[in-house]
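A further point concerns the way the authors explain their paired sequence and structure data. For illustration, here is how one protein appears when written out as sequence plus structure tokens:
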Amino acid sequence: GEAAERAMQSYRSFILELYHAEPISGYVWLHGSKSGRMVHVGGVDAPVTRADITGIVTEFRKAVGTGKNAPMRTGVDVLGWDFAFELNETARQDAELAGIELRLIRIPQEVLEKKAVEQGDIRFFELAALGVDVKKKARTVTLELTDFVIPPDDVPEDVRKAVTHWEQWIDYWAVDWDNSDDTFHNEWQSYRTRKDKTIERQTSHTYPESGKYRVLVKVIDILGNDTTRLVQVEVK
């Protein structure tokens, strides 16, 4: 009803203000603008889904260049508390096909802390991107991490200077070889220890029978954030 609508409006204005974006009206999926990019604010209690991205992309394409709040540049910042598993890959691909540059940005928990808000300590971070290479031989699948990029703004300068190779961003990583629901089942992991500072870059798994499998790769970085990548494999 109206009360819920008003609560949603004030929540969005609050997040947009912390993100230093201007609120705009007249759209369903586009809620603000910031330095020539449009901004979408994800709901409080649900992750941003692929359907949301489709809504954003569709509305954005219709809106470009019309009316006073119309997007001029082809960029959208999607702010969310949480993002559906494979979104980082699929959403970017969907948006790129539509000629839109999409950034997925996590709303930091600190917005819930009055003190942090008052002190103006709120920083929004883009989701990290994870590169995974997949090789198959019969029913054995080998995954290799090829790259891991954390947006540079997220990282304190002293930490950034200390990191000379992308692997050092990774605290540990884990694999769920046969994921059938929304829960991540940790079936293999590699993490650093005091004795051994290196991390394994690859891991293999042999499936007992042929078929299609959903493999989830999860990386926990040194800042404590997790990045999940979905890989679909078919073994014969």
In short: Residues 2-18 form the longest helix (17 residues).
